[in-house]
User: Which sequence fits this backbone?
């Protein structure tokens, strides 16, 4: 295994200061990208989507609670599945009550939704001891309209991450894909779709695991990472690099 | 307040696809930056730092447990303070025990350290119901050497985020600053310092910002563009000292 070169504190500091300039440039690029994201237009939600939660049926507007913004994590859990996808489950395990409260403190409600019927969701939460606001969109067009569930019989192209993906019609194609969708409501109560992100676009929002590992010498220990040879048995990329 | 322009789904998709290209470029730059970070050299830690935890005194290498890597979150909690800093506390609150397990599965131990004596740390944990691994660096040079605690009488200019910061010697300047330090050990049990990051360099580890950054209102802080999305924006946190 290859480890970083051992140097004196002075030599390290020089290399570290150079990297810091790159890091600051990247932070500024991120600030600019976030501003571009906020300058995106938005689309009014005209359809009435119905969800099911612990207290029965509710609409998309109800999911906002008291906040102006709503963030939905599309958890892969199809109607016929017995359990949610392991990778999504890994993200749920890292969600603390403080995360939801902290977001509410910034006028933002965060919920999970899946196409599995609510009783399956309730069972999964109970089995794992998860206390997250998680709703079923079973029977609604919600997941199809936001390109995270696929009807193979649909005549329109199947899109994932804003690109037509013919493989989503294959026999072994998953019926569900992961992503996050973002909504805003105005003072008159109208709801708007402002943004959705998929694949690697949500890897930092899915929790602190990767942001923390990315600061380390061994990284995520995944096989695509440079420099090679840091981990004895590297893991495959997760999320997979479809794009 | 000004909200985003309302358009048709087709118009939105066109704008969204353009942004996606920028997002992908940014992700690739991030991958390259992470690779450069991993290419940094490292420095042998040859001082014998002693920490105190629930089971008494431990050394830096003990904090690794069975893992090859160790990440230390420098929580701001000075010896004379009654409570840890509120911002660090928020970062602790969003941390679940499963994060420590997930990191261990990737050969990485994650712990918190502060300069407050262990009794204060134990009390802060008990008061708040926190179960995190949190050690005291009280009495050791650890915090000073990693530039997160400052001795105002040292006669040298304090360095924070790799820059001399004379204001940190002023009387009302904080004794403690926050940061993350990463260590690696080799098969012979030597410990190396690979990386430290401070200020905005650690903000992605906090959790909620990555999510808020994808929303139309953002973090709702005063520096963000475009202006006018929120009635009463917050100040920047972490602050922008640059």
Assistant:
């Amino acid at each position: 295994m290859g480890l970083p070169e051992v140097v004196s504190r002075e030599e390290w500091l020089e290399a570290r200061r150079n990297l810091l300039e790159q890091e600051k440039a990247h932070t500024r690029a991120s600030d600019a990208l976030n501003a571009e994201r906020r300058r995106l237009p938005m689309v009014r939600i005209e359809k009435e989507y119905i969800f099911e939660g612990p207290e029965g049926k509710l609409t998309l507007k109800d999911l906002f609670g008291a906040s102006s913004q709503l963030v939905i994590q599309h958890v892969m859990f199809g109607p016929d599945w017995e359990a949610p996808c392991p990778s999504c489950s890994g993200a749920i395990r890292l969600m603390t009550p403080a995360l939801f409260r902290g977001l509410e403190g910034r006028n933002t409600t965060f919920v999970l939704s899946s196409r599995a019927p609510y009783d399956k969701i309730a069972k999964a939460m109970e089995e794992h001891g998860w206390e997250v606001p998680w709703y079923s969109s079973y029977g609604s067009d919600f997941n199809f309209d936001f390109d995270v569930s696929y009807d193979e019989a649909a005549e329109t192209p199947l899109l994932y991450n804003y690109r037509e993906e013919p493989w989503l019609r294959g026999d072994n194609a998953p019926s569900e894909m992961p992503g996050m969708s973002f909504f805003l409501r105005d003072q008159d109560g109208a709801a708007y779709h402002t943004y959705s992100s998929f694949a690697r676009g949500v890897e930092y929002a899915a929790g602190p695991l990767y942001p923390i590992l990315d600061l380390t010498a061994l990284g995520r220990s995944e096989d695509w990472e440079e420099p090679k040879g840091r981990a004895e048995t590297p893991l495959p990329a997760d999320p997979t690099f479809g794009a | 307040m000004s909200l985003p322009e309302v358009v048709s789904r087709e118009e939105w998709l066109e704008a969204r696809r353009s942004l996606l290209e920028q997002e992908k470029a940014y992700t690739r730059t991030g991958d390259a930056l992470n690779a450069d970070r991993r290419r940094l050299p490292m420095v042998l830690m040859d001082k014998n730092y002693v920490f105190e935890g629930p089971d008494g005194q431990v050394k830096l290498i003990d904090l690794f447990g069975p893992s090859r890597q160790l990440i230390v979150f420098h929580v701001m909690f000075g010896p004379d303070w009654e409570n840890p800093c509120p911002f660090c506390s928020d970062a602790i609150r969003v941390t679940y025990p499963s994060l420590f397990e997930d990191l261990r599965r990737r050969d990485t131990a994650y712990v918190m350290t502060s300069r407050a004596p262990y009794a204060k740390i134990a009390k802060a944990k008990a008061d708040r119901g926190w179960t995190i691994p949190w050690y005291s660096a009280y009495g050791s040079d650890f915090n000073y050497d990693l530039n997160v605690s400052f001795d105002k009488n040292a006669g040298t200019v304090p360095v924070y985020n790799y820059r001399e910061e004379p204001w940190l010697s002023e009387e009302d300047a904080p004794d403690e600053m926050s940061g993350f330090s990463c260590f690696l050990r080799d098969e012979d049990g030597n410990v190396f310092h690979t990386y430290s990051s401070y200020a905005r360099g650690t903000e992605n580890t906090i959790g909620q910002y990555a999510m808020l950054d994808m929303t139309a209102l953002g973090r709702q802080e005063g520096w963000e563009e475009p202006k006018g999305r929120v009635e009463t924006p917050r100040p920047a946190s972490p602050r922008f000292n640059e």
